[in-house]
Specification:
heteropentamer; A alpha/beta (240); B mainly alpha (331); C mainly alpha (295); D alpha/beta (381); E alpha/beta (267); A: 240 residues; alpha/beta; six-stranded mixed β-sheet; four-stranded antiparallel β-sheet; 32% helix; B: mainly alpha; two-stranded antiparallel sheet; binds adenosine-5'-triphosphate; binds magnesium ion; membrane (chain C); transmembrane helix (chain C); transmembrane transporter activity (chain C); BCAA_transport_permease (chain C); transmembrane (chain C)
Chain lengths: 240, 331, 295, 381, 267
């Protein structure tokens, strides 16, 4: 157990990762390392392959080669459900709300994979909208409400590594602000977070490090304290 | 990125490509026509006619399924409407020339198709399939009950008669070339339809119906028209079939027939022009060969196996797989 | 004697009861279909064949191993369910995520295969199976003679239906299944062994069909083609109830049994067509079926 | 002379569907037995058999037969079960002047309104079935009848025949009920039949419908409540499937039964050795008709349809299938029919010991008289 | 306020089984304006859009387009009148080329859409206009590319071009920049600005920098009802709006702004 507390403990190591959708080769040798308790972002233009990287970690793409080690375990040949059981919580792009299930069912759906997750009360107090609509069908929520639900439901599972894909998409600024606070809290609890984000303004103050992805490769790594120094490089990569 | 693109150049390139595609299509059509013209000298004409009738049926079905995205599970009804109407008229009105009988059969199928279409096109997916199935079952029920159909025994001894009152169709070869002409006419029509302005709209409906609606299209009307054309052609196939075989039977109306045409289309390649033709040829052949040979007790299980294999191994159908192969290796 | 449309009331009540009994069969069969379609989005055209297998297995087990009805009631569905799992694992799994039509064709192929092979082995005249000793005979209800066996059918079918409904709509396992139906990949990403769940669900769905088959063995003629006749009707029932609606399948099953029964009384030739008529009407006015959620 | 020095017989039957057990693959066995018994050759010419599954479809049947005739020089088409198939095929035979022998079909229309100079209907048809059974049952006191009819041409014809016989004998049909084909569940209809209070519940249907109806009738205690069950078309295979428990006491008419005499038993034993089952009347008919055909070919040294048919019509048929059978000008082979009763479980000694023959119905009494025929070939008209 | 009003809603209400998603909304969109509809998640913005285009039927109230009551019209008819929406989720015809996508839209003016006997070549004369439109959104080079193969941002651009092909008088945009990177956001802002010339635009947008740059007038919805209305400065100064929507920071900016400077990042 002790090494799990260790801040230098390598929770995720991706090396030489290639990924394919059918014939198309999307990721071209991705390498990245995330330590326990770190919050790392993947930045990049649309279509760069950030979502695909997260999906590859979850073994949800067509074909992969390379190596992905989670908590010291090689997972290339593992089924997705096994990966989740290693303590990984995945919040997919475009929310993935189960539209036929009620909000409450959606929330309680993902099995608890570790102890230490949030309780329903905590979640509802964090997202009062969801509490109000807890008996509605998931599919009937507004876009933003769905986004909150998608985020909320993995907080319950106690996963200690979160893969979050564009969680601020379509959210009102107040909520985005609140989500920022949530992430800070989660970090304080020692969770490891990989964040794919377009909203740099949101991500910058939270992250320890940033990876820039372009054409399926990591082209730049920037740590928080290098931000201002590398501002112009980042700008050019992100097309600002 | 900064490179500028001149619309005129692009347009020219597009037109060039269209022309090249057209040429390819013409060549393929030419080959098809020649093959079919020569076929009766190598293969028994009645058998060929059977293939052509089913090929037409499958082409008609594919117009709806492959190009509009509507899976009808009731197309047997139109086949039967065509064959029974034509059969009845030719048997009972000896003055009627064959082509009039066929036209009348097609007309009845067309009207029936309109009825089906109006009732079903507002429904989507499986519901659409099931409504068409249900309607076809009602047609089946009608055909079983009605006196003029001969019930289980079907209609027999339908005279082939004379084309335009002149050309005797009793001769198998004459009959064959008549059927071939009709088939080719319909095939080319369908080819035209799918590339026509109307065909474009159908394609768009298939790919993204809500978007088509939001662009101001009353999609139901388009679906209805597509359905009616498809039903008319299916009816025509039935009419021809009744003249060729000189009989009309309940098999034409049974839901298995609706299933069979799906199999043919799928096996050949959904959404390709030639696919249904190839699929029909294949299925008719297989059924025939098997029922003659030592495996004749095993036709059903073998057909079942073919279903399974098709779905598992080559889902885009014979023509679809060939296209894929060509695109991958020869482009 | 009081008459309704020229039919004595007593006869009518008898017909109603018979309708409910047949409806219980429909309910069991359509429930299995609804489970498979609703949860796995598989259009299971092999359902009729599985029903047939249930009945055939009952007879074959008895003839060859002397397995009695009560044992068969458990063993036959389990065997068929196991076959279902195998079919799912080796065939259906490979087309997961493809258009519905493929599952339809695949299962149709499976049905043809099973049916054809058994026809070649056992012929089509039907196999013989006796009503279990316990249920021989019947009771005179005044308006009709009710064979004990039919009474048993209705009770046991309803119990199984309601149990299934409860499991799917009210339990956690059911929630997994419903969610898996929408986005299996994501469910797996949450740590649920979806492939296993899918196999078991399919197995369970066909088990329901096989169970109906066992119930049918003593009263209907057991032949390799017995399932193909009933398949389309059962599909109609599921559509009328609303595809994927578990409760809808059960209620509609019974309802259609009754409607069919009444048609058999008033205009028998239409009794197989009536369900399709109802289906057309229902879909006209309630596009997603009587109990379906909006499409 | 014999064309191509070969007598080619096409065996066409339902090999995989509803009527499979009636003729099917075992019918082909019977035909092969006949050819072997004949010696494998006629007048030095080869005897060849081709066979096909008609899939109960007139389409499939007609294209197969056309091909057989036009490409493969088939001289005789035999088997022929579903009436739609038989009618379609006989049209083609007439067109091409080839011969057909229908063994499996029930419809009496095949030698009535659908008669042709090119086919023979050999084993049975609905007329004697209705005639024999109804006659016997009415005479035993079953005066009021309730008829359950399969709702298609065949059922209607059978219903008509029964009604006529019942009324001629002073009985009365107090109700008829037309059920769809096929019907998996008969309880509703049986209930109505019970409620009708008729003396006799007659089943004017076939195959699975009949066995289902009989099963349900036994379940609902139709016979216990004093009603008689009469099945108009019931084959040995059906009764075998039902078992004597459910079928006991049912009266039926049949054209042949395997356990009638030493000759039939001997042949049946040989048949069973090959197939594992006892032959139906259709199997026996296929055997017999093939033999008769080959003898006619030998006698005339020709395989021309008209020549052979004429020869067959002129020769009385005497073999293990029929005594003094004769083929009429309408193509009907007329022979004695038998009224049988299904044995009780006590009487039945083994699974195939199913009937006792109650009465022999002379052929002329059993079949539709030529005077009532609608067949244009009948000269007396 | 001399400009006439293009679109007006009167007491618009939409209820879902006892839940009021849109509550008595009165909107007035002036001709030539870019009008934004903002508000917290679940405020009812998308629902309003759905009502305007009849993807949903209003429970009560009226919708007027250029003075004419269109409440009872069907979706397609409304689209043909010139009220065209683009979708919150990218909506294209995936297996057609970019050019064909636009052509479908142009075809609706042709009157030959039912001509199943006409050659497909008869559509070629629309190509020029298609290419113009594609060029306008920077997609000319992709004219012959199948749409599935386009990157997300380009699909959005294509969709917008398709929408413009409809010659809309009133353009409804639901979160046009959602899920886009900084670069694309800027492009879309430009596009919308261009598209808005001579037209009226009503848009839902959570990216306030976009709103502030583009919009002439803003309506804030909250819990289905109009909270306030005005130009960006007025609205963003409103304490109620800040509380329910913009938050303490109030900027609500996203990627469109350049990466934050050090001080902000350290905060
Ligand atoms: N299911 C799929 N099949 C084929 N190609 C895909 C699929 N999903 C994504 N792609 C392609 O893979 C590439 C990378 O996509 P990805 O979703 O990872 O990008 P991203 O960096 O997350 O960008 P975005 O901001 O658009 O989400 C894109 O070119 C995309 O078109
Ligand atoms: N079909 C429906 N049935 C029931 N409730 C619905 C339905 N559609 C929307 N709602 C509810 O109506 C409210 C308004 O939804 P709407 O989608 O209009 O919000 P929105 O303002 O677009 O939000 P967002 O910015 O998050 O997209 C939400 O609370 C939603 O849950
Ligand atoms: Mg992404
Ligand atoms: Mg919204």
């Amino acid at each position: 157990m002790s090494h799990e507390q260790d801040r230098d403990y390598e929770q995720l190591r991706v090396s030489g990762l290639h990924a394919f959708y059918g014939e198309s080769h999307i990721l071209h040798s991705i390498d990245l390392v995330v330590k326990r308790g770190e919050l790392v972002t993947l930045l990049g233009r649309n279509g760069a392959g950030r979502s695909t990287t997260l999906k590859s970690i979850m073994n949800m793409v067509g074909r992969r080669t390379g190596s992905i080690v989670i908590n010291g375990e090689e997972t290339m040949t593992r089924a997705p459900h096994h990966i989740a059981r290693l303590g990984v919580g995945y919040c997919p792009e475009h929310r993935g709300i189960f539209s036929g299930l009620s909000v409450q069912e959606n929330l309680t759906l993902p099995p608890v994979v570790r102890s230490g997750g949030m309780s329903l009360e905590e979640i509802f107090s964090m997202f009062p909208n969801l509490y109000e609509r807890r008996f509605s069908q998931g599919g009937k929520l507004s876009g933003g409400e769905q986004q909150m639900l998608a985020m909320a439901r993995i907080l319950r599972t106690g996963a200690n590594m979160l893969l979050l894909d564009e969680i601020t998409e379509g959210l009102a600024p107040v909520i985005v602000e609140k989500l920022g606070e949530v992430l800070v809290k989660l970090k304080e609890k020692g969770l490891t977070i990989v964040l794919v984000e377009q909203n740099f303004h949101f991500a910058a103050p939270l992250a320890d490090r940033h990876y820039v992805v372009e054409h399926g490769q990591i082209v730049e790594e920037v740590s928080a304290d290098e931000l201002s120094a590398k501002q112009s490089v980042l700008d050019s990569y992100l097309g600002v | 990125m900064s490179q500028s693109f001149d619309p005129a150049t692009i347009h020219k390139a597009i037109l060039e490509q269209q022309k090249a595609d057209d040429r390819k299509k013409m060549m393929l059509n030419g080959v098809l026509v020649l093959l079919l013209m020569a076929a009766p000298f190598a293969i028994y004409p009645v058998f060929l006619m059977k293939i052509l009738c089913f090929a037409l049926f499958a082409v008609a079905f594919n117009l709806l399924f492959g190009f509009t995205g509507l899976l009808s599970f009731g197309h047997a009804a139109f086949l039967a409407a065509g064959s029974y109407t034509t059969g009845y008229l030719l048997s009972n009105y000896s003055g009627l020339t064959t082509e009039l009988g066929i036209l009348a059969g097609t007309a009845v199928a067309t009207v029936l198709g309109l009825g089906f279409a109006v009732l079903s096109t507002r429904r989507h997916g499986i519901y659409f399939a099931m409504v068409t199935l249900a309607l076809a079952q009602l047609v089946f029920f009608f055909l079983v009950q009605a006196e003029f159909t001969g019930g289980e025994d079907g209609m027999h001894g339908i005279p082939r008669g004379h084309l335009l009152g002149l050309i005797n169709l009793e001769n198998n070869l004459t009959m064959y070339y008549f059927v071939l002409a009709v088939f080719l006419g319909c095939y080319l029509l369908v080819q035209r339809v799918v590339t026509s302005p109307f065909g474009q709209i159908l394609k768009s409906i298939k790919q993204n119906e809500p978007r088509a609606i939001s662009l101001g299209y009353n999609v139901n009307q388009y679906k209805v028209l597509a359905f009616v054309i498809s039903a008319a052609l299916a009816g025509l196939a039935g009419s021809l079939k009744s003249v060729v075989f000189q009989l009309a039977s309940l098999n034409d109306a049974h839901w298995h027939m609706s299933g069979e045409v799906i199999l043919m289309t799928l096996l050949g390649g959904v959404g390709t022009l030639l696919g249904p033709v190839v699929g029909a040829t294949f299925v008719v052949n297989i059924e025939y060969q098997l029922s003659q040979g030592p495996l004749r007790d095993w036709v059903d299980p073998i057909l079942g196996g073919i279903f399974i294999l098709t779905v598992l191994a080559f889902r885009s159908g014979i023509v679809g797989e060939i296209n894929k192969f060509v695109n991958k290796n020869l482009r | 004697m009081s008459m309704i449309f020229g039919v004595p009331l007593a006869v009518l009540s008898g017909q109603l009861l018979i309708g409910v009994i047949n409806g219980a069969f429909y309910a069991l069969l359509s429930l299995g279909l609804a489970v498979i379609f609703g949860l796995l989005k598989i259009i299971n055209f092999a359902h009729g064949a599985m029903y047939m297998l249930g009945a055939m297995a009952t007879v074959i087990l008895f003839d060859n191993l002397g397995v009695n009805y009560w044992v068969a009631l458990f063993v036959a569905p389990l065997l068929v369910g196991a076959l279902g799992v195998i079919i799912e694992y080796f065939l259906l799994r490979r087309i997961a995520g493809q258009d519905h039509i493929y599952s339809l064709l695949l299962t149709f192929g499976v049905a043809l295969l099973l049916q054809g092979v058994l026809t070649n082995i056992y012929g089509v005249s039907g196999l013989r199976y006796a009503i279990p000793e316990l249920f021989k005979g019947g009771v005179n209800l005044g308006f009709m003679f009710l064979p004990y066996y039919r009474a048993w059918v209705i009770v046991v079918a309803l119990v199984v239906c309601l149990g299934t409904w409860f499991m799917i709509e009210k339990t956690k396992l059911g929630a997994y299944l419903r969610a898996g139906a929408e986005d299996a990949q994501l469910m797996q990403g949450f740590g649920i062994n979806v492939p296993l769940l899918v196999s078991l669900t399919y197995g369970f769905g066909v088990m329901l069909a096989a169970f109906a088959g066992v119930l049918a063995a003593p009263i209907y003629s057991v032949t390799p083609v017995m399932g193909s006749h009933i398949l389309i009707t059962v599909f109609a029932v599921v559509v009328i109830g609303g595809l994927g609606s578990i409760g809808g399948a059960i209620i509609t099953g019974i309802l259609m049994g009754v409607i069919e029964g009444l048609t058999k009384t008033f205009y028998p030739p239409a009794s197989t067509a009536v369900i399709f008529l109802v289906m057309v009407l229902v879909i006209m006015f309630r596009p997603s079926g009587l109990f379906g959620k909006e499409a | 002379a014999i064309s191509n020095d070969t007598v080619k017989i096409g065996y066409l039957a339902d090999m995989s569907g509803t009527y499979r057990d009636l003729a099917g693959p075992n019918g082909l066995k019977a035909m092969e037995m006949a050819i072997a018994d004949f010696g494998g050759k006629v007048k030095g010419a080869k005897i060849e058999v081709v066979s096909a599954d008609d899939r109960n479809s007139a389409d499939v049947a007609s294209s197969t037969v056309r091909r057989w005739i036009e490409n493969e020089n088939v001289d005789l088409v035999a088997g022929l079960v579903a009436s739609s198939v038989s009618i379609a095929v006989s049209d083609i035979l007439e067109e091409n002047d080839k011969l057909g022998i229908v063994s499996g079909s029930a419809a009496s229309s095949i030698t009535n309104e659908h008669c042709t100079p090119n086919h023979i209907h050999y084993v049975y048809d609905t007329y004697p079935l209705a005639n024999g059974t109804a006659n016997a049952v009415v005479k035993e006191g079953g005066k009021s009848w309730f008829i359950l009819t399969a709702d298609y041409a065949f059922g209607h014809a059978l219903e008509g025949d029964v009604t006529r016989v019942v009324e001629e004998n002073g009985g009365e049909v107090i109700g008829t009920l037309r059920h769809p084909f096929p019907t998996p569940d008969f309880s509703s209809f049986i209930l109505q039949a019970q409620a009708s209070g008729a003396d006799v519940v007659a089943l004017a249907n076939a195959g699975a419908d009949t066995t289902n109806a009989i099963n349900t009738a036994s379940e609902f205690g139709v016979t216990q409540s004093g009603q008689t069950l009469a099945a108009l078309l019931l084959f040995l295979t059906d009764v075998h499937a039902l078992g004597v428990e459910a079928a006991q006491g049912i009266q039926l008419t049949t054209g042949w039964y395997w356990d009638m005499n030493d000759e039939t038993r001997a042949w049946s034993d040989r048949f069973m050795e090959q197939t594992g089952v006892r032959p139906t009347m259709v199997h026996a008919g296929i055997y017999s008709s093939t033999l008769q055909y080959l003898e006619a070919v030998e006698a005339t040294d020709s395989d021309d349809a008209q020549t052979v048919r004429k020869q067959m019509m002129e020769t009385p048929i005497n073999d293990m299938f029929a005594t003094n059978g004769k083929i009429r000008e309408d193509g009907r082979m007329v022979h004695d029919m038998y009224l049988a009763e299904v044995k009780t479980p006590d009487e039945s000694e083994n699974e195939w010991d199913l009937y006792k023959i109650v009465r022999t119905i002379p052929g002329d009494e059993a079949y539709r008289p030529l005077s009532e025929s609608k067949c244009p070939l009948v000269s007396s008209k | 306020m001399s400009e006439p009003c293009v679109l007006e809603t009167r007491n618009l209400v939409k209820e879902f089984k006892g839940f009021v998603a849109v509550d008595d909304v009165n909107l007035k969109i002036q001709k030539g304006h870019i009008h934004a509809l903002i508000g917290p998640n679940g405020a009812g913005k998308t629902t309003v859009f759905n009502l305007l285009t009849k993807f949903l039927t209003p429970t009560r109230g009226h919708i007027l387009f250029k003075g004419q009551d269109i409440t009872a019209m069907k979706s397609a008819a409304i689209a043909r009148k010139g009220v065209v929406r683009s979708f919150q989720i990218s909506a294209v015809f995936p297996h057609m080329t970019a050019l064909e996508n636009i052509r479908i839209a142009l075809q609706s003016f042709e009157g030959t859409s039912f001509s199943f006997w006409k050659s497909g070549a008869s559509l070629n004369r629309l190509n020029e206009r298609c290419l113009e439109l594609l060029d306008a959104v920077g997609l000319a080079e992709y004219a012959n590319t199948t749409t599935v193969e386009l990157a997300y941002g380009r699909k959005r651009a294509l969709e917008l071009a398709t929408t413009l092909a409809m010659e809309p008088q009133l353009l409804l945009l639901d979160e046009p920049t959602q899920g886009m990177g900084a670069e694309d956001v800027d492009r879309v802002v430009e596009l919308v600005r261009k598209a808005a010339q001579g037209r009226t635009v009503l848009m839902v947008e959570h990216n306030l920098s976009v709103v502030s740059k583009l919009c002439d007038r803003i309506t804030v919805l909250a819990q289905g009802a109009v909270l306030t209305e005005g130009d960006y400065d007025t609205v963003s100064a409103d304490p109620q709006v800040r509380e329910v929507y913009m938050g303490r920071d109030g900027s609500g900016e996203r990627g469109a702004a350049s990466a934050p400077n050090k001080t902000e990042a350290a905060q």
